[in-house]
Amino acid sequence: MALRACPVVLLQRLGTLTILGGSYLGGWKLTHSHAVSALFASSWLVLPWLEILTQIRRISLPIQRKLRRKTSSVSTPELESLDSQIAHAGFEHLEDCGWEEGNESHFYRVYYHPAQRTQAALCLIDQNGFAFWYLSLCSRSSNGASWTTSNYPFPSSLKIQPLCKLQLVRNSPDDFSELFPMLLEKHTEFLRLSKVQTAQLLEVAPDQVQDLLQSDLETQIRHNLESGLLREAGSGEVRYSWRGMFFIWVQTLREFVRPS
Questions:
Q1: Three-state DSSP string of the chain
Q2: Side-chain-facing half-sphere of 2: CA atoms under 13 Å
Q3: Buried residues in 211-247 as b, exposed as e (16+ CB within 10 A)
Q4: Mean of pLDDT values over 237-244
Q5: To the nearest 10°, the Cα dihedral for 170, 171, 175, 180?
Q6: Which of 118, 180, 238, 239 allows an S-S link to 85, with CB 3.0 to 4.6 Å?
Q7: Phi first, then psi: what are they for 195, rounded to 5°?
Q8: Per-residue pLDDT tens for 30-77?
């Protein structure tokens, strides 16, 4: 478990192998049966269904997430450092917005770099008392395509729209003050490899950013409704279908066994 909590990805994967191997050896020690030992090891792969059936299947999501101006009550040295890093990279702070639904709260501090035509966001999420943050960088083209680089720490629980390309960066620099510059460098390389030039990117007016962000959220919900991962639950809300819950399970397994 200590290896799984380590920030070095290869050590995290070693932790995964240790858990599976230890479970297998535990089963062998108790029964001297390879079949039972394999069952002990594979139980870790079935365990996510416990949370899926008891918690995730009950989650309701609004189809239309109305973003409003919002102020975060959370202030830590890390978040202040990130705000400073983003400003130092030439991004202008545009606005703070978010949405709340039940015990879930989402806060977005949005920035924009006019010369690079790229939007940045510092995101704070609070789900039933479990809080975390992540950064994202997004560049859009006029035909609706977008390229996003993010250090979102979990596997995606919804499908990404076909025109949206996502790059997840899990490794962090040793020096926390270099986190945003590293993500920006990764995003620039992402655009280069995708053969996207700055002239092809959409210029976004400051008053358009919140509408674009809200449109992204609603478009993803509708795309997953059409894909069958979500189903309408009435009152303008959706829930995960059985297909959607199976998708989450597969995503969890991929994260668990991902080699790097």
A1: CCCCCCCCHHHHHHHHHHHHHHHHHHHHHHHCCHHHHHHHHHHHHHCHHHHHHHCHHHCCEECCCCCEECCCCCCCHHHHHHHHHHHHCCCEEEEEEEEEECCEEEEEEEEEECCCCEEEEEEEEEECCEEEEEEEEEEEECCCCEEEEECCCCCCCCCCCCCEEEEECCCCCCCHHHHHHHHHHHHHHHHHHCCCCHHHECCCCHHHHHHHHHHHHHHHHHHHHHHCCEEEEECCEEEECHHHHHHHHHHHHHHHHCCC
A2: 0
A3: ebbbebbeebbebbbeeebbeeeeeebbbbbeebbeb
A4: 92
A5: -40
A6: 180
A7: 60, 40
A8: 888 888 788 877 777 777 888 888 888 888 877 877 788 877 766 778
Which residues sit opposite 148 in a β-bridge?
138, 166
User: Cβ distance 216 to 97 under 8 Å?
Assistant: no
What does pTM read for this prediction? Answer: 0.80
**What are 247-259's pLDDT values in tens digits?**
999 888 887 666 5
Residues 224 and 230: their CA atoms lie apart, in Å, by: 6
- CB atoms < 10 A from the CB of 52, how many? 17
Amino acid at 189: E
- Residues 129 and 17: their CA atoms lie apart, in Å, by 31
Half-sphere exposure of 34 toward its Cβ, with a 13 Å CA cutoff? 0
Q: Does residue 231 have a pLDDT over 80?
A: yes
Residue pLDDT, tens place only, 150-179: 999 888 889 999 899 999 998 788 788 899
